[in-house]
Write a structure and sequence with these properties.
The protein folds into 2 domains: 196 residues, Roll (T-fold), CATH 3.10.520; 93 residues, ApbE-like superfamily (T-fold), CATH 1.10.3980. It has 348 residues and is α+β, with helices and mostly antiparallel strands. The radius of gyration is 19 Å and the shape is globular. It starts with a helix and ends with a strand. It contains 9 helices and 18 strands. Helix 2 packs antiparallel against helix 7, helix 7 packs antiparallel against helix 8 and helix 8 packs antiparallel against helix 9. Helices cover 36% and strands 23% of the residues. Strand 1 and strand 2 form a beta hairpin. The strands form 5 sheets. It has an 8-stranded antiparallel sheet with strand order 1-2-6-7-10-15-16-17, sandwiched between helices.
C-alpha cells in the first residue's frame, strides 16, 4: 500500500505539471530554433516528464509517432517503476539470479559501469536505496540520519552489478541493491530516438526530453540551432545563456531541479554523492554538458556535478569533444575553452 500511495502521489504531481510543462517546452523550442517555426511538433509524457519532438522540414507524421512508440518501449525497460521492464526485473531478482535483458538495456548498463569506473564512482546507477531513503524523487522528503545513510550505503555501489554478456543478462550481488537509471535514462532514450529519426531520413529536428536537448542537423538546413540553458536561479523556461554550433546534445543537471529546503535552510536536492550518501554539496548549482552523445552528456552532467568544478574540469580536459558550463551557488559562470565561441550570455 505504501508503494501504491507513493506512485499515486507521484502521478498526481506529474499531471498537475503537464500543462505548465507544455507551455515551457514551447518556450524552449522557440529559444532553441530562433525565429523559425517547426513544420511539426508533437509531445508525449515519458519518464515523469514531457518529451517533445519538433521537426523543421516536411515529414510524415507517422515517423514521429513511431519515434514516440520506440521511446515508450525503451522507457518500459529502463524505468524501475515499470513492473515488467528489465530494470524492475533485475531489482526483483537481486541476490538471487541473472535476468536476461534487451540489447539496449545491456548496452546502457555496460556504459554506466564503464563511466562509474572512469569517474571513480562519482556516477553510479545503483543508488536506489539512497534515492528512496531521501524521498526527493517522490515528494516524501526526509533528512536522513547518518545511521540510515550507513545502512543504505551497504546496498549501493556499481561493483554490485554483474554482467553476463554472452547471455545478455544482469544480476545484482545482493538483495536490497536497487538500480535506478534516472540519471541517464532520458539522455540514452533521446540519443536512441535521434538515431531512429536519422535512419528514417529526418534531417532537421529538435528532441527536447525534460530539458535534455538533442539536435538533428541545422535549422531548416541553414543556420545552427540555438539552445537555451536554464537559469538555475530563474523560473522554468527562463534562460541565462544560449549555445549554438555543431554539437548535437546539451544536458544540464542542477540542485534546482528536484529539492526541498530543510528546517536548517539547507537545500537537499536529488543529485546524490555516492560516496557520502547524501546530496552533493560542493558550491555548484548547475552543470551543463555539450557534446555529440546525449547519453554521455547525461552521465557527465551528473558525474561532474558530484565531482565539483575543479575536479570536474580536470576530468573533462582528458576527453575530446566534450564542453561544459558550470554555474556556482555564487552565480559565477565558468565555460570551457572550446565552447566560448558558441556561448552567449543573455542580457537581463
Amino acid at each position: 500500500m505504501q508503494n501504491r500511495t507513493r506512485r499515486l502521489k507521484k502521478t498526481s504531481f506529474i499531471f498537475i505539471l503537464i500543462l505548465i510543462l507544455m507551455m515551457l517546452f514551447q518556450t524552449a523550442c522557440a529559444s532553441s530554433a530562433g525565429k523559425k517555426e517547426p513544420e511539426l511538433t508533437k509531445s508525449v509524457l515519458s519518464m515523469d516528464t514531457l518529451a517533445q519532438i519538433s521537426v523543421y522540414e516536411k515529414v510524415d507524421e507517422k515517423v514521429v509517432d513511431e519515434a514516440f512508440a520506440y521511446m515508450l518501449q525503451l522507457e518500459e525497460n529502463l524505468s524501475r517503476y515499470a513492473p515488467n521492464g528489465d530494470i524492475a526485473r533485475i531489482n526483483s531478482a537481486a541476490g538471487v539470479a541473472y535476468v536476461k535483458v534487451d540489447e539496449e538495456t545491456l548496452e546502457l548498463i555496460e556504459k554506466c559501469i564503464d563511466y562509474s569506473e572512469q569517474t571513480e564512482g562519482a556516477f553510479d546507477i545503483s543508488l536506489g536505496a539512497l534515492i528512496d531513503l531521501w524521498g526527493i524523487a517522490t515528494g516524501e522528503n526526509h533528512i536522513a540520519s547518518q545511521e540510515e545513510i550507513n545502512e543504505a550505503l551497504r546496498h549501493t555501489g556499481y561493483k554490485n552489478i554483474f554482467i553476463d554478456k554472452e547471455n545478455s543478462a544482469v544480476m545484482l550481488a545482493k538483495q536490497g541493491v536497487i538500480l535506478d537509471l534516472g540519471a541517464v535514462g532520458k539522455g540514452y532514450i533521446s540519443e536512441k530516438v535521434r538515431e531512429f529519426l536519422v535512419e528514417k531520413g529526418v534531417k532537421s529536428a529538435i528532441i527536447n526530453f525534460g530539458g535534455n536537448v538533442v539536435l538533428i542537423g541545422t535549422n531548416k538546413g541553414k543556420q545552427p540551432f540555438r539552445i537555451g540553458i536554464q537559469d538555475p536561479f530563474g523560473q522554468r523556461g527562463e534562460y541565462f545563456a544560449v549555445v549554438s554550433g555543431s554539437k548535437t546534445a546539451l544536458v544540464s543537471s542542477g540542485s534546482y531541479e528536484r529539492y526541498f529546503l530543510g528546517p536548517d535552510g539547507v537545500r537537499y536536492h536529488h543529485i546524490m554523492n555516492p560516496a557520502e550518501g547524501r546530496p552533493a554539496q560542493n558550491g555548484l548549482c548547475q552543470v551543463s554538458i555539450v557534446c555529440d552523445d546525449a547519453t554521455l552528456a547525461d552521465i557527465l552532467s551528473t558525474a561532474v556535478f558530484v565531482m565539483g568544478e575543479e575536479k570536474g574540469l580536470a576530468y573533462l580536459q582528458t576527453m575530446d569533444g566534450v564542453e561544459a558550463v558550470f554555474v556556482s551557488e555564487e552565480k559565477q559562470v565558468t565555460v570551457t575553452e572550446g565552447l566560448k565561441k558558441d556561448f552567449k550570455m543573455i542580457a537581463k
